[in-house]
Design goal:
Number of helices: 10
Helix content: 25-40%
Distance between the termini: 39 Å
Number of domains: 1
CATH class: Alpha Beta
C-alpha cells in the first residue's frame, strides 16, 4: 500500500536558518514541537554533504515516526530510503522519479499558481501537490502568488492532498486550512524562530489543539 502524506506541519530545512543549532538539532526541535513532515532542502551543498545530512535525518525521522522527504533529488531519496521526494518545475520528471523510487514512495510536485499543473500531477500519479506562495515570502520574495481562491478550487477538484507554502504564519494559516489545505509547509516561520520547538508547536496545534497545547505552556 502506498504511503500517504500526513496531515499537519510540513517543515523544510534551510542551511542558514539551521546553522545556529545545527541541522540535526534544529530538526529534532521541530519534531518535538509537532512537525509531521521533514523535507531536506540544501540546493547549494556538495553531494557528499547532502548524503551525510540525508542519512542523518532519515535516521532521526525514522526514530520519531516522522515522514522524511528529499527535495528535488530522486537518486538521493532512493539511496537513503526516504519516504518521498518533492519535485519542482526544473527537477526530474514525475514519471522518471516514480520508476526509480517505486509505488511505495510519496511523490510531491510544486504547482506554484497553476491548477492545470496540479491536474497533470494527479494524472501522473503524484501523491500531493503544493501551491504557493500563499502569502508574501521572505524566503522567495519574487515568487508567484497563489490566491486563496486557487486553494478552494483545488480542494474541490483534486483528490490528492494540497500543501500550502510561502509566508505562512500561525495567524494567517487558518485561512488556508479553511480553504481545504491538507498541510502547511514552513521554513523560516519555524527554523528562523528563536525557539524552534515552540514555533513548530504553534503551527501543529492548529491541526490538533489538544495534543499540542501543552507544548506552548
Amino acid at each position: 500500500m502506498r504511503r500517504k502524506l500526513p496531515e499537519g506541519l510540513y517543515v523544510i530545512t534551510d542551511p542558514d536558518c539551521c546553522a545556529v543549532l545545527g541541522l540535526e538539532s534544529s530538526v529534532s526541535a521541530a519534531i518535538s514541537g509537532g512537525a509531521a513532515v521533514i523535507q531536506y532542502r540544501a540546493k547549494t551543498a556538495s553531494a557528499d554533504q547532502r548524503l551525510r545530512d540525508a542519512r542523518a535525518l532519515r535516521l532521526l525521522t525514522h526514530r520519531h515516526d516522522v515522514t522524511f522527504i528529499v527535495n528535488d533529488d530522486p537518486e538521493l531519496a532512493a539511496t537513503v530510503d526516504a519516504d518521498g521526494v518533492h519535485l519542482g518545475m526544473d527537477d526530474a520528471d514525475p514519471g522518471t522519479a516514480r520508476a526509480l523510487l517505486g509505488d511505495q514512495t510519496i511523490l510531491g510536485v510544486s504547482c506554484y499558481d497553476s491548477l492545470d499543473r496540479a491536474h497533470d500531477a494527479q494524472s501522473a500519479g503524484c501523491d500531493y501537490v503544493a501551491f504557493g506562495s500563499a502569502f508574501p515570502s521572505t524566503t522567495k520574495p519574487d515568487a508567484c502568488r497563489a490566491s486563496l481562491d486557487l486553494f478552494v478550487r483545488a480542494s474541490r477538484q483534486l483528490e490528492i492532498p494540497i500543501v500550502a507554502i510561502g509566508g505562512i504564519t500561525p495567524a494567517n494559516a487558518r485561512q488556508l486550512l479553511a480553504a481545504g489545505c491538507h498541510s502547511l509547509a514552513v521554513i523560516t516561520g519555524v527554523f528562523g524562530a528563536p525557539d524552534i520547538r515552540r514555533a513548530a508547536a504553534a503551527y501543529a496545534r492548529l491541526f490538533d489543539p489538544d495534543s499540542y497545547q501543552d507544548r506552548l505552556e
